[in-house]
What we know:
By secondary structure, this protein is mainly alpha-helical.
Amino acid sequence: MTPAQKPALKLVPPAEKPALKAIPGGKAAGQAGAKANAKGRAYGDMLAVFISLAIPAAITLWGASYYFASNAARLRHPLHALLKSSGPVGLGLGVAGLVLFLFMWLYPFRKAAKWLAWTGQLGSWMRVHVVAGLALPGLVAVHAGWRFEGLIGLGYFAMFIVSLSGIVGRYLYTHIPRSRTGLELSMEEASNERKSLITNIAAATGMVPAEIERRLAVDPRPYDGLDPIRSIWRMVQDDVQRWKTLDELKQELSRPHAGHAALTGTELRDTLRLAREEMKLTQQLRMLDATRKVFGYWHVAHRPFAITALIAVIVHVVVAIWIGGIGY
């Protein structure tokens, strides 16, 4: 349906339009603050990933002549003492990679041990786990001198697969309705959250709730019968649809309508944020069973590679210490 075909917005008369701050319990302000904090955390995560990838990338560019040289030529290279796996740079990155790798294994332990709740919310642990997983391949690659042979090659391959699959796992994780603490919401809690979002949008725009639901309607096709690949592809399509609908809504709300001024600045951004959350939650509820099913398959595929990487890393560290390869 094109913007021209969409029904005109039905607005509550100005005198009857509720103020956003009048919503019981100040929930709108609380949600806005929570979303601002989430946005700040997302920027912090991206910055951490960028820095952790930029460091090994910069070292690789600086020592490109060494890393592209043959094994024999490396021994005579002026940077060999510095960049070899047991050298200051190579060993330093190896130790950093080992610490990150072992830290990543604390996340599943934190999930299983409920008594560790005092260490932080699961959502925070998940964020650090993902950032560490994305940073790890670059650090380990430079530590290995970009040479992957034997046990090192097996371990790195498993680690790289774990890192890539972690991106998919994170994508699936975000498609399950969760509270601010990272715990999964029940159907009743998710439905109540959705009603609250619609109420807040009505307060901000003057639109009647029924019109909001029609305007933000999502693809109604069920996920039943889809295999994991097609389920993920449908999730991507839902995400694209949400972005398109929000763009159209932004254009509509940016123009004045009868009895209602155009929304601008913070008011427009907050309204679009609420609309995005409402659509996202509606889509999550529709795909919930399929997402859980695909997430279960992902865990089955993810775990063997993670365990293989762990064994390879432990063996590598033990052998390196045993033969005296550290510091020589």
